[in-house]
Structure formats: C-alpha cells, structure tokens
Specification:
Layout: H1 3-12, H2 26-38, H3 52-66, H4 80-90, E1 107-108, E2 113-114, E3 117-122, H5 135-149, E4 159-161, E5 167-169, E6 187-192, H6 204-207, H7 210-224, E7 231-234, H8 248-256
Parallel strand pairs: 3-6, 3-7, 4-6
Antiparallel strand pairs: 1-2, 4-5
Helix pairs in contact: 1-3, 2-3, 2-8
The chain binds zinc ion (ZN).
Zinc ion (ZN) binds at residues 121, 179, 235, 243.
C-alpha cells in the first residue's frame, strides 16, 4: 500500500491524516496512532519507537483490521497472516469498515449526532485546590462557575476525574457539551482536576497523579467500548491554550505500549 493509499484509508476511517500528499509526516502518524488506539487490544507493544518502514506496515495492518480482514497482531512485520490479509484485501474481500462497536453509539442533541471524539481538558486548579473534599463537591463548584459565571445551562464537561482517580459524570453524554469552541457537537469533554500553570508541551505526570492516569485510561477504554471513537485529542489542538496541560498524542502513544 502506498503512503497515499494509507492516508486516504485513514481519512475514510475517520482519522485525519492531514493533506493527502503521499508524504509520511506528523499528521499521518497521528492518524495512525488514533486508529491504533481504537484497535489497541490487537496492537503489539512499542509502536511509538518503531521506525517508519514498520509503522507503514502497521498502518496497512490496522487499515485491514478496521475492514474486518484479520492481519494477526498489528506489529508492523510482514508475517504469513499479514501477507494473506493483504492478498484478500487487494482482491476486494474487504467488508464495510467496522465503525460501530457492538455497544452501538452515543447520540447527542436533537439531531442525534454520533459521538466520534473525546477531548481532554483540565480544571486549571492548583494541586491542593479543595484538598480533602470529595470530587462531588469539586464538580459542583465547577458547575457553579459554568452556570453562574459563564451563564451556561449546565457544567460544560461530560466527565471529571479527581486527584485520587475517582470519576464522576458532569453534563449527560446525550447532551452537547460546552468545552471546545466549534468541536462540541459529536464529542465528549473529559476534565482532569488540576493543571494550574501547565503548558501544552508538558508531560501528563508533571500535573496529574498516577491515579488520574489510570482512571483516564479506564474511562477512555470504557467509552470506546460504547461508541465508535475515532479520535482522542486535547483542547490545545483546537485553541491556543495549554489545556489540558500535556501533549495528548504523546500520552496516547505511551499508553499504547
Ligand atoms: Zn479545555
């Protein structure tokens, strides 16, 4: 499969590879990791350090897997199963892309738009903010900010993760959130408590606890089992902001291994 074909397939599967220019660059790599994230249970460890030639084969394997043709474990190596899958794929044996997990979809708003993306945020609070108080009270405080100060009808985020790794819902998932200008429809917003003084290029562990990392992974996995999530991103990819205070793609790559 040529790089152009890989880019075109990633785009067709809902993972934005940037321009379809036949050049393997950052956006294509991001789109591949986004797809690998969706297929994560079948991916061999260490994808973030594979050389380009292995990533290209992994992309081909992932694209075939997303079309229901099993290439074996996605490992970027041309084993017998990969060669057989490639033969079937190029012979047109591909079924329709698998887009919706058995659980179906999360639909939002009156138009019933399917949720395809999860966008991560931070509360921009200091590590000791409301220390010792339950997450429930912190969620209510953020709800007050959003309703009383911002004038919104409810808290903007769908899920919140406390410093101790506890998770609570905010706005119902079936309602369109208020967390990223222009990207609220068809997405869910997850807010990590903390993140004060963070920068977009910081590491997750600079501002959040290991319990929050484990909770976030669990929540992403759980939502991905209920909805065809094509992309997990950070607020800072859509606005000149630090939020959520780390590079989400890099964090996802680490989570792959
Ligand atoms: Zn944000």
């Amino acid at each position: 499969m040529r790089i152009f074909d890989i880019q075109r397939s990633l785009k067709a599967l809902g993972h934005d590879p940037g321009p379809l220019d036949g050049v393997w660059g950052g956006p294509a790599r991001s789109a591949l990791f986004s797809l690998l994230y969706v297929l994560r249970t079948q991916v061999a460890a260490g994808a973030e350090i594979w050389p380009q030639v292995r990533l290209l084969i992994a992309a081909e394997q992932a694209i075939m897997a997303a079309h229901g043709i099993d290439p074996g474990v996605i490992d970027g190596l041309e084993g017998a199963r990969t060669l057989e899958a490639r033969r079937r794929f190029s012979a047109g044996a591909a079924a329709r892309p698998i887009q919706t997990p058995p659980g179906g979809a999360i639909r939002q708003g009156r138009a019933g738009l399917a949720v395809r993306e999860i966008i991560l945020h931070c509360a921009a609070t200091r590590p000791d903010w409301m220390a010792g108080r339950p997450l429930r009270e912190q969620v209510e405080e953020i709800r007050r900010w959003h309703v009383r100060i911002n004038g919104w009808r409810d808290i903007g985020y769908h899920w919140l993760i406390g410093r101790d790794g506890s998770i609570l819902p905010g706005r119902p998932e079936r309602e369109i959130g208020a967390h990223v200008r222009g990207r609220n429809s068809g997405s869910l917003g997850i807010c990590l408590i903390g993140g004060h003084g963070s920068a977009a290029s910081d590491r997750f562990s600079d501002h959040y606890t290991p319990a929050q990392g484990a909770a976030l992974e669990r929540l992403l996995h759980e939502i991905s089992g209920r909805a065809p999530i094509a992309r997990v991103s950070g607020h800072n990819e859509y606005a000149a902001k630090a939020c959520p205070g780390f590079n989400v793609l890099r964090w996802l790559e680490r989570a792959e291994s």
